[in-house]
Structures are given as C-alpha cells and as structure tokens.
Amino acid sequence: MKKVGNHKSFSKIFFSLALTLTLSLGSYSQDAAPEAAASGGDAALGKQLFNANCAACHKLDAKATGPALRGVANKYDKEWVYKWVHNSAELIKSGDAQAVKVFEENGKVPMTAFPQLSTADIDNILAYTSEVKPEIPNVVADAGVAGASTDSGISNNIILGALALVLGMLVVMLFLVSNVLNKIAKANGIEAPIKEKSLPLWKAFAKNQFLLVVSAILFLLVSAYFAYGYLMQIGVDQGYEPIQPIHYSHRIHAGDNKIDCKYCHSSARVSKNSGIPSLNVCMNCHKNISEVAETTATEEHSKAFYDEQIQKLYTAVGWDKNTQSYTGKTSPVKWVRIHNLPDFVYFNHSQHVTVAGVECQTCHGPVEEYEVQKQFAPLTMGWCVNCHRETNVKVEDNEYYKKIHEELSKKYGVSQLTAAQMGGLECGKCHY
After folding, report:
1. Which end of the chain is more exposed for a tag (fewer CB within 10 A), N or C?
2. What pLDDT is recorded for position 136?
3. What angle do CA 361, 362, 366 make, to 5 degrees?
4. Per-residue pLDDT reduced to its tens digit, 247-288
5. Cα(333)–Cα(313) distance, rounded to whole angstroms?
C-alpha cells in the first residue's frame, strides 16, 4: 500500500503514464487483436514498471485517480504514445488534436514527463496492460472438492458404535456372572452377611463440633477469596473487542502492509493521548485504493466485505470514486473506544513512546495479527507497577535521564536502573 498525498498535489507530481493510454478514439475495439499489443514487449518487466510508475494512480480494471488501463494498448498509435509519455506538455503545446482531447477530458491536469522511460519500457508496459484478465476461481467449490478427496478411513461413528457394543456386552456378562454366583451360594447354603445400618453421614458430621468449626472457617475464607477476586475485576476490560462502525483490520494495515502504528496515531509521539486518526489520514492511501486484493480475503471475511468497508469510508468523507472528487457531503464516524483509564490515573503516551522508547505492542499486544482490535492488557495498577519494576530505563542518546541516572546508579550500585528505581513507583507519578 503506497502513501498518497492530497488529490491536487499528487496529480501534478505523479499523474501516471497510463493516463495517456486509456481514452478511446473509437477507431479500434477493445476486444480486437490483443496479441498485437502485447507483441514486442515483456509483460513481466512491464508489470514492474507499471507498479513503479503507474500503480499509484491507476488500476487495470477499475478507475482510480486515473482511468482503468486494461486493453489500452489497442487505442493509440505507438509513436504517438512515445511522444506523449516523454513530454506530454510539449505535445499539447504543439496543438496535436489527440493530445489536447486527452488533456481536456481528464480535467486539464498536467502530466509529469517521463523522459527516462525508453520505447522498450513503454512497450513492456503496453504488454502488461494487454494481458487478459484472469478469472477468479470458485474458492468455495474447490474447498468442497478438496474436503471430499481427503475424507478417508473409518468413520468416527463406526468406531464409537463398536466401542458401545463391546461395553454393552461387558455389562451383560457381569450381570450373568453375578446371577451364577448368587445361585451357587444359595445352593451351598451360604448367606451373605447383613450389614448393620450406620449413622447417616450428615448426622455424624453434625455431631462432630470440631469438623463444624473447621468447615465454617474454610467456608468463610473461600468466600472471601472469591468475593475479593470478583470485586477486583470490576472495571478490568481485558479482551474487550467491540464492533466498530467501519471494520478496520490491523492485520491488513499493520501486518500485511507494514504501516507504522505512529503513521496513523501520530499524536502518540508528542501528546498524552494517542488520538483517533482523522479520516483524511485514511484517504492518503484509500483515495486511490477502492478495493482490496483477492488474496486479502479470509474464511471469515470476503473481498466484497472489505470493499464495502472502504465504501463506508468514502461515504463518511464524501468521496466519489467515479469522479475522483469530494462531494462535500460528510458524515461522522462514531468509533467505539476500547482502552479507557480511570480519571484519577495519569498516563502520557509521548513519555513512553518517545522518551522511553516503548513499543506499541508492549501494551496493545500483537496488533499486526489482530483482525479486530481488542484490549490486550488488563491495564491494572499491578500490571503497570510490574512493568516499571522489570523495565530498564533507556539512557542511550537520552539526555532527559542522563544526570539522574548517573547519581542513582551510584546509589544503588548498578549500571542499569529500572523505572521503579528512577521513581516509577511514587504515587504522584500516576495519581495527581
């Protein structure tokens, strides 16, 4: 996923090569002679060039900042394409009718010249854009076939039935043996001894005062233990995973696309709060990314589901992906807060992230693996105190702690100080 700036400045700097190759003059059909366009070019190399120069603004089969590119090689004369790509402004200035038409139909946005692209490079790009669109395989059907082919061996139901049958035979045999033994004993005049009735257990227990006292004490202690544990969990929301109005996958953004947490939560570096990212930050990328790749889909969420979430973002910011412009109609997104500390607790993100160099995953867990963000840590006082006791203070290239670290390290006789030894357990540090 590439980082994209605002629409106007981006178009002036990176208006892709493919813009010049998309609008039809009606002289050729899109379905005619695709092999002719691909001849003389390497599609594999063309894909690399396309991703480097065109993919930021254009897609093969959908309109983005610029129009779609699939089959565009059949629409223009190659010699004209070479001139346009190398210097479109000069071609427009010369009065070329085709160049002027392309320029006007695309909002009169000037295209940056690409003199570094050779004619062979352009041929490679044309070859790539002329490839036939691959068909999407039927994943559900394939999965069903695969499941059927791997189902082999004896059924679990047959095994359980056999075991039940053997158990039933054993019960019958025991019953028969018991009857035979009773008949033998009766024939020999042997009578089984009659057991005397003993005092019921509860009466014996009630008569024993020592057991009553001990049981009462144990009951009170166990009750107090469970009551204390229950009360201590009030306000602890570890594992809290609310449904958000727009499904945002940290797995895709922070995991697959390696986006730094502080790119979206930029205020975490300089502020007490990490902040909720503005939707404008989302549009830096999604202005040109209106759908996800086929490989992004999972068993739980399909490609159509993720594309629908991007459309929700467009609706919220008022972005029309067809006209590539803002409509001015916006609607706020009511995000559900996940992490919430009590009002009497002071926590500063910048002190931990910038000064201490604590990684986001320390408190928020492996967010790059989360499909839906949840509260990873309990965020209790004991959890914070343990972290202060175990974490050494980062002194390298940190003038903030240098002087006090030198004094306290001599006092404690150690070379590395923990946050607790630096005053991290003082009540006033977190409660004010």
Report:
1. C
2. 61
3. 30
4. 999 999 999 999 999 999 999 999 999 999 999 999 999 998
5. 9
Query: Which phi-psi region, left, alpha or beta, contains residue 124 (left: φ > 0; alpha: ψ -120 to 50)?
Result: alpha
Residue 403 structure tokens: 């002087």
H helix or E strand, kind and range, residue 115: none
CA distance 231 to 102: 70
Is pLDDT of 35 > 60? Answer: no
Nearest to 350 by CA among 293, 247, 270: 270
Alpha-carbon gap, residue 234 to 338, rounded angstroms: 16
CA–CA separation, 304 and 247 (whole Å): 13
Burial of 87 (0-12, 13-18, 19+ CB in 10 A): middle
Half-sphere CA count of 157, side-chain side, radius 13 A? 0
CB 66 within 8 A of CB 57: yes
Angle CA(92)–CA(124)–CA(289) in degrees, nearest 5? 75
Query: Any bridge partners for residue 421, and if so which?
Result: none
Distance (Å, whole) CA 203 – CA 277: 69
Which amino acid does the sequence have at 427? Answer: C
- H-run or E-run covering 32: none
pLDDT digits (tens, 9 = 90+) for 200-235: 888 888 888 999 999 999 999 999 999 999 999 888
Tokens of 54: 């065109």
Q: What is the CATH number of domain 7-129?
A: 1.10.760.10
Looking at the chain, the whole-number percentage of residues with pLDDT higher than 70 is 85
**CA distances (Å), origin 73, targets 90, 92, 96, 123, 338:** 22, 20, 19, 9, 50
Alpha carbon 83 to its chain centroid, in Å, reads: 44
Q: Are 250 and 373 in contact (CB under 8 A)?
A: yes
Contact criterion met (CB below 8 Å) for 324 and 15: no
**Across 149-207, where does the E strand assignment appear?**
none
d(CA 313, CA 25): 35
Separation between Cα atoms, residue 173 and residue 175, nearest integer Å: 5
